[in-house]
Description:
Distance between the termini: 28 Å
Structural class: alpha/beta
Helix content: 25-40%
Number of helices: 8
Oligomer: single chain
CATH topology of the largest domain: Rossmann fold
Radius of gyration: 19 Å
Amino acid sequence: MRNKLKCVVVDDEPMAREIIEAYIAKTPNLELMASCKNAAEAILFAQEDDVDLFFLDINMPEISGLSLAKIIHKKTQIIFTTAYREYAIDGFNLNVVDYLLKPIAFDRFLQAVQKVSLSEITATNNDFMFVRSDRKMVKIDFNSILYIESLSDYLKIFTTEKTIIIRETISSLEEKLPSKKFIRIHRSFIISLKNITSYTNEFIEINQKALPISRSYKESVLQKLAEV
Length: 228
């Protein structure tokens, strides 16, 4: 597992870039990969899966930070940096880690970085991941997960030993799971392939629980099951 997060800074203001670069240099678990003066330069890094974190300005000429965020690799985390508070809602709708309002103080910068868990980003290289539950980071072995259910604004992770409740979107958690071991079968369910006991065209049974396959996922699910 890497012990540093590889970062890219994107901002059209030289002083703003210099501040973030200095903050990165002062933070032991961060490593600067590139500093870009516009989104066009940053596009070269947008689909690189070895970039862990973007510090991304929103209000930039020609291509905005919001537009760039939509094409950044799905496993790459984003922290928005901007002088405009009104962009906050748009930023959080993109499921970013945090939203830093300029001028950015170092302690606020560190607070945002602490929300980016290196163990979560690199979890798919291991047999486990860490999730935040009940004010602590809880280790979950992938092999112990039976299925995951989305309920409104929180998730239930059902394992062979217990049920863990976390506040996260199911799409966000799906990105952290190894695709060879898990599959989304419904807008509300992700299941472990190894723990399937039986299935039909409509349901998958795990641990005596019948979970529905939705119409929109059916083709990809049945194709994946045929390959197992």
